[in-house]
Structures are given as structure tokens and as C-alpha cells.
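Figure 2 data, in text form.
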Amino acid sequence: MERFLYSRWRRRLWSGVKGPDVLDVGVGTGKNIPYYSHGVHVTAIDLSERMLSRARKRANSLGVNVDLRQMDVQALAFPAASFDAIVASFVFCSVPDPVAGLRELGRVCKTEGEIRLLEHMRARSELAGRLMDIINPIAVRIQGANINRRTIGNIEHAGLPIERVEDLSAQSIFRLIVARSPLTQSTVPQQALQKLDT
């Protein structure tokens, strides 16, 4: 999946990310590091020191300078409006309180900043969605991630204006979402509104 799908989606996620200051949330083992935009300063966080150690090795092997910090997205230790852009991939399926984490992204994002998310979530189809609801407890037990999160609704509840939603797979399970700081005075394009659901 990483080789044939995720890597392509990660490249798309990071394409056009503007700095100078960028936050990579949930860096994990550093799979986003090869796609960091040139000329930006990236701070990357993760809850796990073990994951950060692996990300550090990857960054060193690639010759990429990144500021790696252990931190919980639900309680970021950054001042308000610290970053020009925030990027996260496959993170909010496992955050215990995703709305709290998303609100923190909005808090530390600059007024005109961009929040880019690559996430998997509950299928748009109600039948497929119900199946995912049934399977979810097993999925969480095995891999620690929820497969039925209603991430679009969580973003809206966090007060982040959604600018664009791009479906990447059948049933809209994988989506690329571009949102803004809650302080941004902008409206959601009509074509994006037509794609939104909870």
C-alpha cells in the first residue's frame, strides 16, 4: 500500500506546501520526510519516542534537516499562530479526541495558513459504513486505529473552514482535505460543499 498508493498520495499532500515554518503532525517513522518541500523549516512531532528515533534515522539517511519533538497533538506546546502550514497523514484515526487535536492545529496555524490532511475514514455508503462500524473494535485492537472515524464532521466541529476535499478511493474512504485556520475569513467553494458529509 505504501509503495503503490500512499507514497503517491503523500507526494500530492506535500506538493505546494509553503513555509517558512511547517508542522508535520504524527511523523511516525518519517514516511513523509522524502516529500518535504525545499526551503522550508519543518518541525515534526509524534507521541512515541520510538517512532521519533526511527524518523531521526530516516532523516539522517536522506540528509534532511528536521526538528523532531515528542508531543501530543491534543496539547501542542507551541504558541498560537506558530506555523504557516500544517500537514498530517493518517493521524486522526488514532487520536483519542480528534476534535481536540484538530482545534490545536487551528490554534497553532497562522491566520492565512493551510492545514492539509491525508486521512482514511468511514465510507460514504451507509451499508459500507455500518460494516466498518462492526469491524472497528477488531481493527482498533489489531492496529490501534479506528476505521470508521467521521473526520469531515470532526474538522467542522473543530471550527476549521474546509477549503477542498479530494476523494482518493472508492467509497471516499481515503481523502485529501485542505482546511484553514479558524481565523481565516474565507468561504468554502461550492464544489467542495457538495462533497462534504459527516
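Caption note: The beta strands are 21-25, 41-46, 67-70, 83-89, 109-120, 162-167, 174-180.
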